[in-house]
Amino acid sequence: MTRRLLSGNEAIAEGAWEAGVRVGVGYPGTPSTETLESLVRHEDVHCEWSPNEKVALEVGLGAAMGGVRSLVTMKHVGVNVAADPLMSACNTGVNAGLVILAADDPSCYSSQNEQDSRFYAAFARIPCLDPADSAEALDFSRRAFEISERFDTPVMLHETMRIAHTRTMVEVDGTRADDAPRDYADNIGKFVMMPANAVRRRAVVDERTAELEAWAEDCGLNQVEMRDKGVGVICAGAVYQHVREALPEASTFKLGLTWPLPAQALAAFATSVDKCYVVEEASDYLSLRVRAMGIQLATPPAAPIPVAGELNPALVRASFGVEEPAHQPAAKDLPPRPPAFCPGCPHRLVYVELRRLKAVVTGDIGCYTLGAVAPYRAVHSVIDMGASLSMAHGMELAGVTERTGRPVVGVIGDSTFAHSGITSLLGTVYNGGVGTLCILDNRTTAMTGTQGNPVNGVTLTDSSHKIGPLDNPTGKALDLPVLLRALGVEDVAEVDAQDQKAIRAALKAAVANADQLSVIIFKSPCRLVDRRTKPAPQIKDCRKCGTCIQIGCPALGRAADGSAVIDPTLCVGCTQCQQACPFGCISPVAPKEA
Amino acid sequence: METKTILLVGVGGQGTILAGHLLADVAARAGLDVKVSEIHGMSQRGGSVSTVVRVGDHVSSMICDPGCADVIVAFEAVEALRAQQFLKAGGAMFVNRETITPVSVNIGNFTMPQNVRARLTGMGAKLIPAGRIARDLGSPKSTNVVLVGALSTALDFDADLWRTTVREGVPKKTIDANLAAFEAGRAAALEA
User: Fold this and answer.
1) Is the pTM for the entire model greater than 0.95?
2) Do A337 and B102 make contact, defined as CB atoms within 8 angstroms?
3) CA distance A25 to A56
4) Which residues pair with A170 in a beta bridge?
């Protein structure tokens, strides 16, 4: 046994490895990403990124059906993408264990919504495990595979950002269970979900559900801790930790299994305390179910638990009328510091030019979502992966350009295009759609930490071994222009995303060509992948017009007299400000003579 | 040991995460329970960032509530003001003297706050010229370890335990520079 500080994600990877997992597959998404990045560093397990979560789950199901234990990882919105195979995999069951990690993001730290993935577990009627720290994450991850095989069902392992990204102490055993593949045998009645079989499998799932409900009562994943009998709190995951912090005297029913719920044990707990509460965050998942069991739940004395957003001990205290410690008020005069495009970011000049065009931009999921904030304010919708392209087609059908005089432009990243953009584009081409679409190909999946993807050909194994990121990918890199032409796009342009004039010309030409579908690939590597820098340029005789500053580079500021200044510690020498200056005042520093 | 809460705040890219790891490792080596909560993803790109480290015999929540931070370490002065409500009455605060102007100010949508340093010293903060110290030592990237040195004066861990942890927790080539940064930060905090 070794004592280690592990994040929830690292602990889940360790637990899966100890359980003998042979295949790990997923799509990067905060807060789930580090799980596979940690698992790939272990021996005897094949790990890969899929183009999207649906593909990942199908690969995982195939591996499990084929006889090896598989872990499939995704963020909460990824479960929406994977929902189609999930709602049939729950009926086929598995052969070897299949565990699906769903990582939720209450308060949307890095997400477009804060849905509770456990509703999917209940919908699919698959067991759902909810660890409250990294030690439990390791333990539950290991046990999830046993549960999967025992009940012949996929299992959901559910966590929130505070479990995924909190490092806590873990005793690591480090021994791996037998990972020999289970035999594969044809079983058409079980795995071919044609109507007659699906009807029979439905009955199997009904029986399994009854078995799981009985097992839940005494499964060893839930913990009743009796303290003061005046207050009893039912809770799970990180919220359990907040309840312990805020109400140390309260009795608690900590649910480690959040589907199915142990009805009898919960009823017994509720009657053993004067008042029984459910405390949960961003969701009514638990309270809905506990109420449906006929258990009387009390409302906290001072205020109901907030229905939206992440919980913390202070919010629990406030609901229960516990005084908060004295503190200063929050400062109200501070400038916001939202995330921004990095110095040299290849997305910046594209948005500068989209702003100039006054385009209506349907955007997508990635760093380039930041084109919606000042100074660009040039993204007007962000919904889900791929929506930029299909929504641009919808806007075209709505006649937005005719009515507003503004061009509609869809903007998507390379990894997101591979995830869900290809089918969106296919729909537009097939139906004779026109307009302008941009693929911002920065050669990586940047927002989640520069993972490989099908467009750059960098595999999960490559990036874990720190192979020169784009130099020698072992995967097959997608040839975007060839694919676009094969889909039927006739007007395909490739443009250097660091060349402002070329960007302007390409957008202008595409928009002018209103009767045709144009796709522009803006290509330049993310600065987190290509970290080569040049010296900061010099500014001479600045006219103080502020044009360069309005490109929103963190390295550009103003001196007291209003002239532009460059912070040489942040500047990467990309020349974006130089191109933006209308008076030619910014020029590269002459290389020193040898 | 009763649970202590340390809040590290700064701007994405300043090295708050490594500083949090060093502190967590010191507490773990001292045999304590530790929880370290970080924010990843969207929040990193030059935006405000924070890491919470809680240490003690048994740590429950990983979150720092208003009025609950025993120590705040701010890698940038405006971010120190942004975190002021988290400081416990009588808690310690170490602040890098430097400010980084956010893009929101550069593009003219907001202004920088007034009297930043006076407001900070008014609430008992110790201003540490961490960036300058690191630059003078010839290793500007070790600003975070200068602040770790300052932090070490506010917690009851043996100085040698800190030194060992820094030595084993930073890249090999930077050990000497980081140890020097640690000592300089400690000295600056004791003088301030």
Assistant:
1) yes
2) yes
3) 6
4) A4
Contact yes or no for A556 and B33 at CB 8 A: no
Residues of A in contact with B24 (CB under 8 A): 5, 167
The pLDDT of residue B137 is: 96
Q: Does residue B135 form part of some domain? A: no
Q: CB–CB of A558 and B106 under 8 A?
A: yes
Cβ within 8 Å, pair A165-B102: no
Quick check: B40 and A110 CB within 8 A?
yes
Q: Which residues of A touch B104 (CB under 8 A)?
A: 335-338, 374
Spell B121-156 as b/e; 16+ CB within 10 A means b.
eeeebbbbbbbbbbeebebebbbbbbbbbbbbbbbe
Q: Is A367 on the interface with B (CB under 8 A)?
A: yes
Distance in angstroms (rounded) separating the CA atoms of residues A37 and A60:
17
In a domain, B53, yes or no: yes
Residue B117: inside a domain: yes
Residue B67's pLDDT is 98
pLDDT digits 0-9 by tens, A467-506: 555 677 889 999 999 999 999 999 999 999 999 999 999 9
The packing angle between helices A8-18 and A134-151, to 10°, is 40
B24–A167 CB contact, under 8 Å: yes
In angstroms, how far is CA A281 from the centroid of its own chain? 19
Predicted pLDDT of residue B42? 58
Instruction: Please give the pLDDT value at position A593.
Output: 58
Q: How many domains does chain B have?
A: 1
The answer to whether residue A31 neighbours chain B at the CB level (below 8 Å) is: yes
CATH number at residue B101: 3.40.920.10
A309 neighbors A106 (Cβ within 8 angstroms) = yes
pLDDT of residue A462: 87
> Is residue B120, in this structure, part of any structural domain at all?
yes
Write the single-letter amino acid at A447. Answer: M
| Sheet strands (E) in A94-179 | 98-104, 128-129, 155-160, 166-172
Cβ within 8 Å, pair B40-A449: yes
pLDDT at B1: 86
Residue B165 burial (C-beta neighbours within 10 Å; 0-12, 13-18, 19+): buried
pLDDT bin (cut points 50, 70, 90) of residue B66 is very high
Closest CB to A328: pick one of B36, B68, B123. Answer: B123
**Contact: A5, B106; criterion CB under 8 Å:** no
CA distance B189 to chain A (A): 23
Domains, chain A, ordered by start: 2-216 (3.40.50.970), 223-319 (3.40.50.920), 348-523 (3.40.50.970), 538-587 (3.30.70.20)
What does the mean pLDDT of chain A come to?
A: 96
Which domain, by its residues, includes B26?
Answer: 4-105+112-124+151-174
At A125-166, the pLDDT tens digits run 999 999 999 999 999 999 999 999 999 999 999 999 999 999
Q: Which of A9, A233, A327 to mutate to test the interface with B (most CBs of B within 10 A)?
A: A327
User: What share of chain A has pLDDT > 70, as a percent?
Assistant: 98
Q: Has residue A336 got a pLDDT over 90?
A: yes
Report the pLDDT value the prediction gives residue A466, as an integer from 0 to 100: 56
* Average pLDDT score over residue span B141-166: 97
Question: Which tokens go with A113?
Answer: 């919504």
